[in-house]
Amino acid sequence: MKNWYGICFLTAMIALLLGFTVGIGLGGKHIRVEDAVPDTVYETETIPEVRIAIDPEATPSEAEEAAAAAVRTERFFLVSETGYLLVFTEGKKDECLQTHIPITDFPEEEQEKLRQGIWFDSMLDVFFYLESYTS
């Protein structure tokens, strides 16, 4: 009976090793590297580099001004009106976002700041600010 278990174990090990060998042999042949298509230009997403002037007296060139303008983003104004917070985009009079968040969810010192209004450089900053007080 002991011999029977040994034969079954040995047969299973041989089948397992044979399966691994065949799998590795077949799997490695499906990988191939293709050459790039000649004379093809691939577009990439790039952001213009804003260069910091070493000489503070120097005036930036038109290209650097254009690059700096491209990097600038809209600013957002968070303010309390009628007890709820609203977000406005700089330069636009239309309402950008009505949050439905009551000003009473904030501490007293923050409520005063929100009545005056707070500027943010990105909408993500607005969301982080709101989340820090409402979660």
Structure characterization notes:
This protein is of the alpha+beta class. The protein has a domain at 76-134. The protein has four helices and four strands; from the N terminus they run ααβββαβα. It has helices spanning 2-27, 62-71, 108-116, 123-134; strands spanning 76-81, 84-89, 95-102, 118-120. It has a four-stranded antiparallel beta sheet. The longest helix is centred in the N-terminal third of the chain and has 26 residues, at 2-27. The model has no long low-confidence stretch (mean pLDDT 76).
Write the layout of secondary structure elements.
Layout (H helix, E strand, L loop, with lengths): L1 H26 L34 H10 L4 E6 L2 E6 L5 E8 L5 H9 L1 E3 L2 H12 L1
Antiparallel strand pairs: 1-2, 1-4, 2-3
Euclidean distance between termini CA atoms: 68 Å
Q: Assign the structural class, choosing from mainly alpha, mainly beta, alpha/beta, alpha+beta, or little secondary structure.
A: alpha+beta
Taking pLDDT < 50 over at least 5 consecutive residues as the criterion, the unreliable ranges are none
Mean of all residue-level pLDDT scores: 76
- Strand order within the widest beta sheet: 3-2-1-4
Our count of helices gives: 4
Largest sheet: 4 strands, antiparallel
How would you describe the shape? elongated
Strand content: 15-25%
Computed over alpha carbons, the radius of gyration is 32 Å
Number of E strands: 4
- State the order of secondary-structure elements, H for helix, E for strand: HHEEEHEH
